[in-house]
Amino acid sequence: MVINTLKSLLLASLTLLGACASVPELMARSAWEGRNVNEAYQQWGGAQQMSQNADGVFVLVWFKSHWKTDTVYQGSSENVSAGVRNITNYYADETRNVECRITLYVGPNQIIRKADSEGGCGPHMTPPGK
Description:
- The structure is a single chain.
- With 130 residues, the chain is an alpha+beta fold.
- Helix content is 31%, strand content 45%.
- It has a four-stranded antiparallel sheet with strand order 1-2-3-4.
């Protein structure tokens, strides 16, 4: 019994870690559900990939990217002055290109059934106001 519970908790933890999406991004994903796909076209333009499942659901994929600057730890130095140990940490801004993949599952009625994202899609996922 305890082992099964631990297995379930471990699986849930791994699932959450694997999602790698922020809470605002997760909320934005759900905000797309129930909207007309034309809103996605207005926001992101035409999809880079499109396919249709056997059940008639369209799978639309957009690839987006943006520049992000983070302050990162560069190292530290240590010295002793008047018997007091001083440690100085060094940080620098690092700018990198963040890529993401947005996938929408759209029913034949053009309504978004599910929105998914991979990578750093946060800035791209906010839907337009209703």
